[in-house]
Amino acid sequence: MRPTILVCPALGRFVFTSVVLSLVTFLQPAAAQSPSQRGSSPASHRETPTVLAIRRASPAVVNIHGQKTVRSTAAGMAGATGPDSFRQVNGMGTGVVIDPHGYVITNYHVVEDVDDILVTLSTGETTTAELVEARVRNDLALIKVNVTSEIPTIPRGTSSDLMVGEKVIAIGNAFGYVHTSTEGIISALHRDVPVNETQEYSDLIQISAGINPGNSGGPLLNIDGEIIGVNVAVRVGAQQIAFAIPIDQVVETVTGMIDDHNEQRLLTGLRTNGGPRDGDGVTVAHVAANSPAARDGLKPGDRVVRVGAQSIDDRLDLALALLSANPGDALKIAVERDGHRVDVAMRMEAAPSRLSSASIGELAWSTIGIQARPVADSTVRRLNSRMRTKYRGGLYITSVRSGSPADQQGISAGDVLLGIHGWQTASLSDLAGILEHPEMQRGPRAKFYIVRKEQTLFGHLQIAAQPGTVHIEDSRR
């Protein structure tokens, strides 16, 4: 029988390293002082490589917290599905800043179901954040923190040359004690860890560093203070058995997430090559005819070295640079061509809609069995005011096909669809992007959210037609 990851260590063999607590005091770390600041000798043996590694990485580690909905333990064991089987609690985890403009990576389970994501920076400042993209299958998410100035980013290493026995350091918000640092070694590499019937982590790093609830999404560092993994889970009931997602795998997944997000917004005509490691570089592999890239002078074989003020060392750098661009912007791009630097200004264009409204309607009717239209802005404002929420928008369901996946899950005409599988459905284009996404083509049980009579409800929609139903559950409590 496969082990199950639960939010309560007493009930399962594995536990996500985000934490759910009803009441917690968030403790801010005191400002660190180096031995030289305290008047000690610069050659003091107390300033070890571990101290230097933590000092180097800590400014880019953030605390993520906010209210989320969970099933109460007693109700979960009894199999209850009514309103009293859920409660609102304070959930938390950790994140890592990968871009100075406030883009942070974390585990998806840290931000899943969180109504308002709050982020506390290493300075102690607390601000809000929005979910940009997520890969539920990989348990990774990208959030954008609302900051007014640039913030420190994590130094990035590689997981391609890790050694069993190598010293590692974990930083995270263990049980709400922010910036808790622990030390251990790499116990094993390439671990595959099944967590439940529908999810399995692949190729994980096993470590002996102390990992606790609240560490999820935080960095695993090498002795140089570079991130080599993202902490994700611990084995319940065991000692010093914890796991992290290798950083090369994280970078590849996050880059794909951002590329998908950019392609929905922007038309560039570029296709690039490059590896996941810092320094791998980015080379233009193809330029589409009549595209912005072709019009403004980019050519296959160009090596991209800078976009705006950002140096480009790998495809993640390029994806993040494009993430900050908008249609109409003239993006300054520097490339190396035949040993010379060439500067171009590529004017960004909005991505064309891949499907007409009629085609999107046919897709939604055939795949999940709904007809829908965008909710008016005034309706969204009214819902947000009455429900004290911050929904960006939604789709008003006008009809449900009998026997369809939507019908089987209890979705009805009059419901407002808010999101599917971690993505918002504020427009028909959003819905089309979700239904056409490669991850959805694999037919997962996709979690969906709706509003019905000013109550937020959720269920699990089987996109690929399969027998069985899962009833909608009340997520208010």
From TrEMBL:
Keywords: Hydrolase, Protease, Signal. SUPFAM superfamilies: PDZ domain-like, Trypsin-like serine proteases. Residues 253-339, 352-436 form the PDZ domain. The keyword Ligase does not apply. Residues 1-32 form the signal peptide. InterPro entries: Chloro_Bact_Ser_Proteases, PDZ, PDZ_sf, Peptidase_S1_PA, Peptidase_S1_PA_chymotrypsin, Peptidase_S1C. One of its GO terms (molecular function) is serine-type endopeptidase activity. Its EC number is 3.4.21.107. One of its GO terms (biological process) is proteolysis. It is an enzyme of class 3 (hydrolase). Belongs to the peptidase S1C family. This is Putative periplasmic serine endoprotease DegP-like. It comes from Novipirellula herctigrandis.
